[in-house]
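Kindly inspect this chain:
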Amino acid sequence: MTAAAPVHPTASPPPETGTMKREFTLWSAFSLAFVFVLPIVAMYGIFGLGLATVGPAFWWGWVVTLLGQLTVAIALGVLASRWPLAGGVYQWSRRLVGPRYGWFAGWAYTWALLIALSSVSYSGAVFVALLFGLDATSPPVLVGLAVALLVVTTGVNVAGRRVVKLVATACIAAEIVGSLGVAVYLLVFGREQDPSFLAEGLQAAPGTPLMMTPFVFLVAIAGWSFLGFESASSIAEEVKNPKHAVPRAIVFSLLGVGTVILFTSFAIILAIPDLPEILAASEGDPVIAILAHHFPPVVVDAILAMFVIAFLASLVGIQAAVSRLVWANARENELPAAAWLKRLRGEGGLPTNAILLTGAVSVVALLVLQNPYANTLLVAFTTVGFYAAFSFPVLGLAIARFRGTWQPGERLFMGRFGTAMSWVALFWLALEITNVLWPRESADLWLINAAPLIASAAVAVAGAVVYRLSPVGRGLVESSIALDARTSAAPVIEKEGN
């Protein structure tokens, strides 16, 4: 691969060079990761699914999953403190094991993010439909609204970083009112159940296999809620003091989201007046039926509007992350049309082409998955995709330590404890991937049951084919040592920002 032309540290590079401006701070990285995992999205996106399939006890799935994902966040924070580069999962895997391993990590992570765009837009479409009085149970209606959300999201990302930061800030404000405000009100004035209600649905019938028990299943469902905290690393090359800021943004965003989810969902579950009645009157989502029981219609509409804002902001964060990942892969000439995808446009140097491509691919995924099980499939695809992507750098760290090549030469995030936690994270990821892929549906729904495994295999096979045609597969890439030397010498362009 041809080395990049030298750039004077004080010069402003032309729009099509491979350096983006550092206009984000720790708060910006935190807020972007926070809106990616946004509590409103993370909780309400699967609240109805968990309540209908398990019962109130599905709340405990969030507790277990948050603890497991915290070990992953710490492990990724360690890697981000050593290599604060755009496309984190891909970049870390590449430097830990090698270009081939990194290429497949980037491939898995890219598809996880793209499917997440489709999944979150579909979940958000339910609330848009309810807000405007449309049929929230009709797949064609929901797909049309989801496509509209993706179009708006793409426009926001193309508009620039200032607009992205503005949307993220507005979303956090909506989160405070829409989640915390509602939760406090319901706990004080709308409580209908005792805390023991959260155990309902937890007991399994005698003789039920372990993997079929409600507790194990609810942990699989909850896996969808704590994804995307690593997205702070995707904008690392646009963040000031990234070795300090990015790891903290990764961990703090997960803890912030987890705290809000546990508190808000606890309040809403205890506000359920009658579970069968709520499920029967849900019209697409039981949360709205619960809120309608406690609030007048005008307040419910205001809450729905805040939900829609929250989903839109989450989509903005997801697309910002995946577009940077695509750009990072293209910068190394590892994707088809790399010259077009790695082009930066405008004064701020935005990966506009990568943004447009990610929006288009997510729209196509929505159009393909038009069926009554679309939400269940998208949740499963997203969950297993992210967990597989997380496994690449965490496993890569274990491989590097085994080989003796993990010698950072500097104190990294959380020191020895952070590195040791990667072993726990690897064990957790293996368990959760197995859990999500485990067949549970009835025999007559065998295709839906096997869909996550089939999709994972399809992505892997497609990746093997594309890899053979890529520069990595043909051996036309730099070694990890050369990569470290080049990226560490890259100029840093600072600019004031929030």
